[in-house]
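User: Can you model how zinc ion sits in this protein?
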Amino acid sequence: MTAVLRLWPLLTATHRYDKSISTRGRGQGERIEAPILAYLIETTQGRILFDVGCDYQKLADPALRAKWYDPAEFPMGPPQMSEEQRLPAHFARLGLTPADIDLVFLSHLHFDHAGGLCDVCGCDVHVHEAELAAAHEPADDAYFADDFAGDYRWKPQRDEYDLVPGVRAINTPGHTAGHMSLLIELPQGRPVILAGDAADLTENLEDEIAPGLCWRDREDLALASIRKLKATAAETDAELWPNHDMAFWRTLRRFPEYHA
Ligand SMILES: [Zn+2]
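Assistant: Here's the modeled complex, given as structure tokens:
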């Protein structure tokens, strides 16, 4: 019996970038606009947040923006993020505050997935132990050391596990060293798999195309994870949600509407 009650996709920012960042070896010179998402999962055993978006201050404060999004060092460029897209603003529309979040689950620690940790205080933060290690190296330029330097209650994970009944972590390395996806059993509708950046676009799933950025160029790992997610979706009759696909995102319930 699932503990899940509701699932809200939260649009925390948008980002324009070269499509080859999402589809390895494909779409060079083509610009796409991608949503940067978090997902709030309400369960009978507390509220879980999947990813936390970007750090708003690094975008809004000119000095921080110049430091972290220096075009010479970060050619992908800064996302577009408004005050109303910050997590606390989403929570407020539901009558909640950051203190009402019980657990943060991070698919990985890139800037557009872990930057908003500073806006969610106090709760346990689940991430794969290999991801923490890769972020601290750092293994690539999309890790912003400052994002995960705070005094957070890290709960490093290794094996696949149930966060609560009906919410299962799935190891999907490839895009990063310790990437994880999440299988969510809804109370009424079909299960949902949040692919995270194991699949940015529907195209990554349909055509089995790896993300542009692969940990240590391990395209094989990324492709194995895409196939694993597809197999899991087939076994569980789950919908498989790509993470940075604007056209797909537009088919989802618009906040504060939710999936149940
Ligand atoms: Zn990423």
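A couple of observations from the model: The chain has one domain: 4-249. Residues 4-249 form a domain with the Metallo-beta-lactamase; Chain A fold (CATH 3.60.15.10).
User: Helpful, thanks.
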